[in-house]
Batch of 4 targets.
Target 1
Amino acid sequence: MNEYLSMFIDETREHLQAWSDGMLTLEKHADAETIATIFRAAHTIKGMAMTMGFTRMGEVT
């Protein structure tokens, strides 16, 4: 596995965890900061995917 793919996988896991944690928080109470965290995680994953050439993943809405 090349170095960039390994970094992509590691960082994606971190952002997916933030996304998951945010979703669990929303079940208890919704606030603007939690929603922003979820959107930021999704946006970052999409951007990293496009940079890596994973266009199908980057085009998910």
Target 2
Amino acid sequence: MAVSIPSITEDVARERFIMYASGYCCYNNAPAKDGVITNMQAFNTYRYRLETFTESRSTEWATKPYEGEPADFYTQTAPRPWEIPVTGPSLFQNHEENIKVPYTSSNKPCHTCSASGKMPCHECNGSGTKACWVCNGSGRRGGDSPCSQCNERGKENCSKCHGNGTKECETCKGKRQLLTYINLKVEWKNNVEDYVVEQNSGLEVNNLSDVTGKTLFKNAQYMLYPVYGFPDPSLSQASDRLVREHQAKYSQNSRILQQQQTIELIPITKVTYKWKGGIHVYYIYGNEHQVKVPDYPATCCCSIM
């Protein structure tokens, strides 16, 4: 499989370098503008990506304020988690749904407020008043002058509870009762794992995670077979390993809905340039022409006051 990507021009390399340097307030852009490019070397590499789209389901007891819903506990046999019909998202899209399991709900008095719908205000300890902030509770200010803020009472109504001494119960929202039911949590997750063929350019592999390349191969089905016979044997070996690992791992506690594998050719160009007698390098990579500069030669210490 002889596949190549058109090399970038020196003009593109310089333009991207200047844009990169201009994005940093502490970088002098002289190296990017005046540096002399002496060599441009391609280190294009392959990336294999395996995606395994899964669905998992779990249940737990839950409560919510009672809104008058009919209690259906034991009116029929509750369905099991995988018996409940749920509409999922598009393939390979992460998503989560919470569903009330039918025939599991009952209502009960709120345990937090003892079915009163109210709780003592923590701001005023249930008294409904607080010491006046102007006179600090003395009723006087500036010696013998009466405090006009509190009319000499030394107290004023609590602003949090409006002088009532109580606030609405956070658990039942003032309804006094709770609906108890079994909640079904359904999670769709796209589990992604990459393998990048070693390219010996000096650019770290983790820099490639946010860029794209030229798609050479892509297929999706319920359960994949590994890619065999690829020109680079390490990629075929990685495909075989990852497919087996994913199918074993994600079938234990979830259901595999679909798998997808992709092979991309990612462009990487190592640019060597000379500036003020020194030799330096930077990298341009991905379809997006991202720039990575290991050691920019003209920086200054700057701070924002």
Target 3
Amino acid sequence: MKIRTKYACQSHILPSIRLLTVALLLVLAAACGETGMPQSGEASSTSLSQDTSIASALYADKRMPEGFYSEKAPDNTFYTISHLKNISILPLVNRAGLPVYDLASNDFSEALAWSDQAAAYQPSYKQLSGNSETPLYYQFTRFDPASPEFIDMQRVFKASVIDFTGVDRNNEDEQYQGRITLTDLTAEKVKMIIEYLWLFTSNNNYSNAILESYTTESAGEFVHIMKQARLNIGYGDKCDSIEVYEVRYTIPRNTGTIQKVKSLDHVFMARRTGDGIEICSE
């Protein structure tokens, strides 16, 4: 009888222990939801908010974030900025099939001669009206006397800053992007150079946006990250496709070479709805 009584007591205690264990697990799960990993609903809401912000930037043509490299535009004039390339100083008939890269020099006279030569090969010769320079480039301002309100600011990079030998601008996704030659390289200078170069790519157009741009550094290298987005317009009533990707530029301290790697982060669908934006579920 005692044995039966003992087992009878256990039969009542075990279910109670199970109930307490389940209750404890539920409490712990709730605590994790409050202070630990975000719940699926919260993560989904955050992702939706981020995608809406990305779509807003693209539709509003906000291409660069705060703090991105910028220059003050000339007042009261129409202007273009171009960088002299290896083919700029060749006759038109000799340019086909050649790799294209930006010229660089530390000699002002050589840079000016290139500018004169490039102007001579243009269909309409543009006169030189002035010159200037920055730590990054020489600039030669030219205009066509028939249309003096339009100016062309030709630039030649300084070889003491960057060298584009071996780069082919025909392929913007090429991994090798040139070599920074500065001897006193810092994260701030890396950021400035990479952002400046981006301004003169085909990505600096409507349907593209830089979401983030920053540089980190370690003992051996600099890494510049650009988080970018691209808008692909849908046809008819279809939603637009938006690609979000990361572009990583790695610059070893001992070589200065710029290696570019682009990776897709995610894709989502969106469309404009009057004054608002809808994130599509399809």
Target 4
Amino acid sequence: MYNYENLLIELFGQDYAINESLVYSLQFSHLRTGGQSKASKSALSRDLSDLVGFVEKYRSSLIDDEYNSHEYSVKLIQIPKISNTNRGDAAIEFVRWDILSAEDKAAYEQIIVLVKDKKVKVEGANVSRLKPQEVVDSINKKFAGFKVDTNLHAVLYKLFQIRPPYKSEDPFDTNTKYCLYDEPHGDYVYLQEWVEFVIHYLQSSSLQPPQLRQRLKDQQYLSCSDFE
């Protein structure tokens, strides 16, 4: 679909792009408005979260008979087979558990015992995500230099551009390794990796808070990849 639209644009110009055509879905379009890109990212974020949650809840809700059934999954136990009577024996022999007699099952269970802990997880929102004040507190516990406050933290995330500016048209445009947009609350949360990154940067840099603020004022931005 992308190649088709590229060819249309190449031959006839952007007026013939399919982004406004009702025949094709907008997610296949080569040209998008800012609103379309924002809506696409928002929908994708929710869909992926819902899909992962559905799979996890489905697997944890299976009863043991279903979970252990060969119709659901196949679990293999490798046991060396020694045969001195017939060199033509197969190197691998597959034994179907569901057709074994009770006596044979008991014999196999004596060879190996499989213990499976089944956990039913209740999904929590923003688990292991940090608010700005929590980021600052974590940094100050490990960084022995000057004290970091929320204002200086804002300077740092702006210098490294890990999240878009306030009221950006695309709030999802973050460096997902360090920062995520929390759509229900309309704000941003940070990961532990961001705390470790900031500590590493401050320890290896000679810049003091006034210099960092001046650098931001002069729009001398930094790249995370240069300090990772």
